[in-house]
């Protein structure tokens, strides 16, 4: 992945990124993809929403997925296709879900009867966005803009009741490019809600068999300031065991027709260590729940699996002379082949 560049203005960088995506989509040949991604973490729940838009020789289409893990109901969700549209230069919408720009951030609206989920959430951002441009992914290019330090306000309703949301930690990113699902590509990505005032994001780009890496990066914010950017050999990642919790729900349900040899291919424990000079950080992630999303390949009749895993994380270390220690919750995403 190319270098991560901090942007000076949280108000203009998202609009710049979406404008750039829209303008490139209009002139890019072949396949084109873009999506908006949101994670919100509560004390007893986690919500994940994704809106996508793609263009190919057969036309323009969109899709969405919504997952929510609660203490009462475990994981519920839905994954569906629908017509897509942009809302201004930096918003995106499809049937049942939209992310619309506001004066202070974005408004996320979800109406997903299949998941028994309604939500109205305002996302407000504190830190400057980060933009990574031109990362190779398969035969194409992947570009990424992240707003990792956010707070969500509003409410959501599931089959288990109504939940008020006030200042819940949130993450948002926007991605675009012209790669093709089914090619030799994969990634791992993680977000941890703030601990000791620090927000952590892990990004790893690799091939389907996890034998070659294009990029490995651990980013840390203290409040709204980026204080750690560990890269390449400064970051070590080790997986242990296999997730043995409740069976992973599959979205859409038609994935049940595929014989993938049993449970989701997700480790039970993940350890990340990062060191640069006097700065050091260690993360011990225990996977607590898994859901699997299926995306039809562009290269054939197979399906690429996106495995979304909730986790509890123990964090310890020192950055700029300040100690960090404690436990928090987050999400770990895996996209790879067998």
Instruction: Estimate the mean pLDDT confidence.
Output: 87
In terms of DSSP E residues, the strand content is over 45%
Secondary-structure-based class equals mainly beta
| Residue runs with pLDDT of under 50 for 5 or more positions | 6-12
Q: Distance between termini?
A: 23 Å
Main β-sheet description:
13 strands, antiparallel
The general outline is globular
CATH-level-4 superfamily name of the largest domain: AttH-like domain
Overall number of domains: 2
Helix/strand order, N-terminal first: EHEEEEEEEEEEEEEEEEEEEEEE
Helix content: under 10%
The total strand number stands at 23
Compute the gyration radius: what is it? 19 Å
Number of separate helices: 1
In quaternary terms, these chains amount to single chain
**CATH architecture assignment name of the largest domain:** Beta Barrel
Kindly summarize this structure in a few lines.
It contains one helix and 23 strands. It is mainly β. The chain has two domains: 180 residues, AttH-like domain (AttH-like fold, Beta Barrel); 158 residues, AttH-like fold (Beta Barrel), CATH 2.40.370.10.
Plain-language structure description:
This protein is mainly β and 338 residues long. It has two domains: 1-180, AttH-like fold (Beta Barrel); 181-338, AttH-like domain (AttH-like fold, Beta Barrel), CATH 2.40.370. Helices cover 4% and strands 65% of the residues. It is built from one helix and 23 strands. Strands 1, 2, 3, 4, 5, 6, 7, 8, 9, 10, 11, 12 and 13 form a 13-stranded antiparallel beta sheet that branches. Strands 14, 15, 16, 17, 18, 19, 20, 21, 22 and 23 form a ten-stranded mixed beta sheet that branches.
């Amino acid at each position: 992945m190319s270098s991560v560049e901090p942007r000076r203005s949280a108000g203009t960088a998202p609009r710049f990124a979406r404008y750039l995506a829209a303008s490139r989509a209009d002139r890019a040949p072949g396949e084109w993809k873009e999506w908006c991604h949101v994670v919100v973490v509560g004390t007893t729940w986690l919500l994940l929403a994704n809106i996508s838009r793609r263009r190919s020789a057969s036309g323009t289409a969109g899709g969405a997925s919504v997952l929510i893990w609660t203490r009462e109901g475990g994981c519920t969700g839905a994954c569906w296709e629908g017509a897509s549209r942009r809302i201004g230069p930096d918003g995106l919408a499809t049937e049942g879900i939209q992310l619309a720009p506001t004066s202070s951030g974005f408004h996320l609206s979800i109406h997903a009867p299949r998941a028994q989920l309604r939500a109205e959430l305002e996302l407000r951002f504190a830190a400057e966005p980060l933009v990574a441009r031109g990362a190779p992914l398969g035969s194409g290019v992947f570009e990424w803009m992240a707003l990792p330090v956010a707070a969500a306000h509003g409410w959501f309703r599931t089959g288990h009741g109504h939940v008020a949301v006030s200042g819940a930690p949130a993450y948002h990113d926007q991605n675009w490019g012209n790669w093709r699902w089914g090619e030799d590509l994969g990634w791992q990505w993680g977000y941890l809600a703030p601990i000791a005032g620090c927000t952590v994001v892990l990004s790893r780009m690799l091939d389907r068999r996890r034998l070659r890496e294009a990029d490995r990066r651990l980013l840390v914010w203290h409040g709204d300031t980026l204080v750690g950017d560990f890269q390449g050999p400064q970051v070590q990642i080790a997986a242990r065991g296999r997730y043995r919790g409740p069976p992973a729900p599959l979205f859409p349900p038609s994935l049940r027709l595929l014989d993938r040899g049993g449970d989701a291919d997700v480790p039970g424990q993940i350890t990340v260590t990062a060191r640069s000079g006097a700065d050091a950080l260690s993360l011990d992630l225990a996977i607590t729940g898994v859901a699997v999303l299926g995306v039809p390949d562009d290269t054939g009749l197979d399906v690429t699996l996106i495995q979304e895993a909730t986790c509890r994380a123990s964090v310890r270390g020192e950055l700029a002379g300040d100690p960090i220690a404690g436990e928090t919750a987050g999400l770990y995403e895996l996209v790879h082949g067998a």
